[in-house]
Amino acid sequence: MSSTDQVYPPSPEFVAQANANEAMYSRAANDPEEFWAEQARRLDWAVPFTRGLDWSDAPFATWFADGKLNVAVNCVDRHVDAGKGDRVAIHWVGEPGDSRDLTYSQLKDEVSRAANYFASIGLVAGDRVAIYMPMVPEAIIAMLACARLGLTHTVVFAGFSSAALRARVDDAGAKVVITTDGQFRRGEPAPLKTAVDEALGSGDDAAPSVEKVIVVRRTNHDPDLPWVAGRDVWWEDTVAEASPVHEPEAFDAEQPLFLLYTSGTTGSPKGIVHTSGGYLTQAAYTFHNVFDHKEARDVFWCTADIGWVTGHTYIVYGPLANGATEIVYEGTPNSPDEHRHFNIIEKYGVTTYYTAPTLIRTFMKWGRQVPDAHDLTSLRLLGTVGEPINPEAWRWYYDVIGGNRCPIVDTWWQTETGAHMLAPLPGVTACVPGSAMGPLPGISAKVVDDNGNELPQGEQGYLVLDKPWPGMLRGIWGDRQRFIDTYWSRFAEQGWYFAGDGARYDENGALWVLGRVDDVMNVSGHRISTAEVESALVAHPAVAEAAVIGAADETTGQGIVAFVILMEESDDHDALITQMRDQVAVDISPIAKPREINIVPELPKTRSGKIMRRLLKDVAEGRELGDTSTLVDPSVFEAIRSQRA
Ligand code: ATP
Ligand code: MG
């Protein structure tokens, strides 16, 4: 934004103890392969690698391909072997108020039992296993047991419908589905296993790949839980009865670790493939440096669900590879009330809290009296991910949650990138609210125009990743061509990965991600980013959230249409709308003033909490809605349409 933006340098105390340092940037730039090899050597390799990147079959990369390792051993056993078995790995907090702590030793036993049982039913390296579970410890145990055996897991968010589950199970060809009998919603049990039964079908319609369904008892709510003899087994009768001793085997660095479907914000979800050695290297490296993690002192909490990549990398693989102690919370932020997260931070002394802008805006709407009622002084670092964070929300997070003391890491990355790509380094970078600042050491990114020319500071263009990185996706499951078309065709000549997002370097060299390029608007020849107009609207004190789209406009090409949620209901919408338009004119330019501002009760979001602008565009342009399969609540559109009528 403007050069008057306040900059937040790290405090001298933070700098003095930081894991990261300025020299990492030049070291990585001078010899990226050696830099990444050094990071990879922080892991335990059964067979050390001698090679780094192989890009000869671009865009299909391999990293450390002649090395062998076991991902689960790296996340669990090696900490036990190093005498840290009594350290808590997971403080699990159940939705209805139950809780459970798992030390690294206990985790090792549990993962070993699951691995022994999975092997006993004939699963072999390379087989796929679908995991459709709420946030219970067994979900993480199941993921790690898959990793231990070289199985490829695909976690499907438990809020998805049975149809969405079936599509993913079929696409992945999963042999086993792991689920729970039910899940808690606001303290009440709700069915889950029945959704699996519906998804898997029967007779002619039965999912062809699935041989077994393993059911963890969670809610115990249904004495007549439907059961398919021969297919269904209880976890407690099988896994829990298996031996806690399991001899792990090492796998190739390129052994597929998981496939995960993208959130579907921009279209139908893609099955992203990640492998082992490079992915774990980048997950562990970013966790250590971007979260400044200190073992035996920090209590980390990533609030994502394991159904998203954020949960994979920063609940499971990144923290556990570093021997961290972390919170895993099963429920929503407002059950039983809006104090839930703050109670957890206080009770466990959380030091590092990583969440999404959508939740921060929700906290703002609830009001600062909620966090102010708690002692949050254990916090020392905050993070955000998922969408651009509006500067207003950033400052609120910094002040109200972080007590003007905690660095904020705004982390830009994707399901496809595997781990953080753009982010400040805490203790090194002076942050500008709303900017992800720049590529991490070892990562290379550019902002370019249509022809791939690098743009000067101040001009917005396409965000590209011009060098391969260890955690990069290795493909789209079963669809070689879609992988090439989706990510590598826009800048095929240069061989760059195009992320789909627009960005700009500002005059001080800070990198701003401006949202999807499909969302960049063209108003009378001016390119205006939806993210910036949204941030200007959110800066108005009455506005809680805003979504902006460019709708076809006969005179200007595109007209800016905004949908806003108010902090609290007001009778004078007209006056507010005038003020909001003025706010945009002042913050950005009169050209960016929305043509139309709709005050609505809700915004359409994906299950991972992102605003689905493409559907709002369908509404504004009077079309039928596109793919809504990952939308939380389709009924929001009735309310939105009635506001516009
Ligand atoms: P699909 O690819 O199916 O449309 P999706 O892109 O929402 O879904 P994810 O991989 O979960 O799926 O999200 C990655 C995207 O989220 C990025 O491309 C970017 O648009 C957005 N994003 C993530 N973190 C940030 C951030 N810190 N700042 C700005 N945008 C972010
Ligand atoms: Mg995407």
From TrEMBL:
<dbReference type="InterPro" id="IPR020845">
    <property type="entry name" value="AMP-binding_CS"/>
</dbReference>
<dbReference type="GO" id="GO:0005524">
    <property type="term" value="F:ATP binding"/>
</dbReference>
<feature type="binding site">
    <location>
        <position position="524"/>
    </location>
    <ligand>
        <name>CoA</name>
    </ligand>
</feature>
<dbReference type="InterPro" id="IPR000873">
    <property type="entry name" value="AMP-dep_synth/lig_dom"/>
</dbReference>
<dbReference type="InterPro" id="IPR042099">
    <property type="entry name" value="ANL_N_sf"/>
</dbReference>
<feature type="binding site">
    <location>
        <begin position="386"/>
        <end position="388"/>
    </location>
    <ligand>
        <name>ATP</name>
    </ligand>
</feature>
<dbReference type="GO" id="GO:0046872">
    <property type="term" value="F:metal ion binding"/>
</dbReference>
<dbReference type="Pfam" id="PF16177">
    <property type="entry name" value="ACAS_N"/>
</dbReference>
<feature type="binding site">
    <location>
        <begin position="410"/>
        <end position="415"/>
    </location>
    <ligand>
        <name>ATP</name>
    </ligand>
</feature>
<feature type="binding site">
    <location>
        <position position="310"/>
    </location>
    <ligand>
        <name>CoA</name>
    </ligand>
</feature>
<comment type="function">
    <text>Catalyzes the conversion of acetate into acetyl-CoA (AcCoA), an essential intermediate at the junction of anabolic and catabolic pathways. AcsA undergoes a two-step reaction. In the first half reaction, AcsA combines acetate with ATP to form acetyl-adenylate (AcAMP) intermediate. In the second half reaction, it can then transfer the acetyl group from AcAMP to the sulfhydryl group of CoA, forming the product AcCoA.</text>
</comment>
<dbReference type="InterPro" id="IPR045851">
    <property type="entry name" value="AMP-bd_C_sf"/>
</dbReference>
<keyword id="KW-0007">Acetylation</keyword>
<feature type="modified residue" description="N6-acetyllysine">
    <location>
        <position position="610"/>
    </location>
</feature>
<feature type="binding site">
    <location>
        <position position="334"/>
    </location>
    <ligand>
        <name>CoA</name>
    </ligand>
</feature>
<dbReference type="GO" id="GO:0016208">
    <property type="term" value="F:AMP binding"/>
</dbReference>
<feature type="binding site">
    <location>
        <begin position="185"/>
        <end position="188"/>
    </location>
    <ligand>
        <name>CoA</name>
    </ligand>
</feature>
<dbReference type="InterPro" id="IPR032387">
    <property type="entry name" value="ACAS_N"/>
</dbReference>
<keyword id="KW-0479">Metal-binding</keyword>
<comment type="similarity">
    <text>Belongs to the ATP-dependent AMP-binding enzyme family.</text>
</comment>
<dbReference type="GO" id="GO:0003987">
    <property type="term" value="F:acetate-CoA ligase activity"/>
</dbReference>
<feature type="binding site">
    <location>
        <position position="540"/>
    </location>
    <ligand>
        <name>Mg(2+)</name>
    </ligand>
</feature>
<feature type="binding site">
    <location>
        <position position="516"/>
    </location>
    <ligand>
        <name>ATP</name>
    </ligand>
</feature>
<feature type="domain" description="Acetyl-coenzyme A synthetase N-terminal">
    <location>
        <begin position="22"/>
        <end position="75"/>
    </location>
</feature>
<dbReference type="GO" id="GO:0019427">
    <property type="term" value="P:acetyl-CoA biosynthetic process from acetate"/>
</dbReference>
<feature type="domain" description="AMP-binding enzyme C-terminal">
    <location>
        <begin position="532"/>
        <end position="610"/>
    </location>
</feature>
<feature type="domain" description="AMP-dependent synthetase/ligase">
    <location>
        <begin position="82"/>
        <end position="477"/>
    </location>
</feature>
<feature type="binding site">
    <location>
        <position position="501"/>
    </location>
    <ligand>
        <name>ATP</name>
    </ligand>
</feature>
<keyword id="KW-0067">ATP-binding</keyword>
<dbReference type="InterPro" id="IPR025110">
    <property type="entry name" value="AMP-bd_C"/>
</dbReference>
<feature type="binding site">
    <location>
        <position position="543"/>
    </location>
    <ligand>
        <name>Mg(2+)</name>
    </ligand>
</feature>
<dbReference type="Pfam" id="PF13193">
    <property type="entry name" value="AMP-binding_C"/>
</dbReference>
<dbReference type="GO" id="GO:0005829">
    <property type="term" value="C:cytosol"/>
</dbReference>
<feature type="binding site">
    <location>
        <position position="527"/>
    </location>
    <ligand>
        <name>ATP</name>
    </ligand>
</feature>
<dbReference type="InterPro" id="IPR011904">
    <property type="entry name" value="Ac_CoA_lig"/>
</dbReference>
<dbReference type="Pfam" id="PF00501">
    <property type="entry name" value="AMP-binding"/>
</dbReference>
<feature type="binding site">
    <location>
        <position position="538"/>
    </location>
    <ligand>
        <name>Mg(2+)</name>
    </ligand>
</feature>
<keyword id="KW-0460">Magnesium</keyword>
<keyword id="KW-0547">Nucleotide-binding</keyword>
<protein>
    <recommendedName>
        <fullName>Acetyl-coenzyme A synthetase</fullName>
        <ecNumber>6.2.1.1</ecNumber>
    </recommendedName>
</protein>
<keyword id="KW-0436">Ligase</keyword>
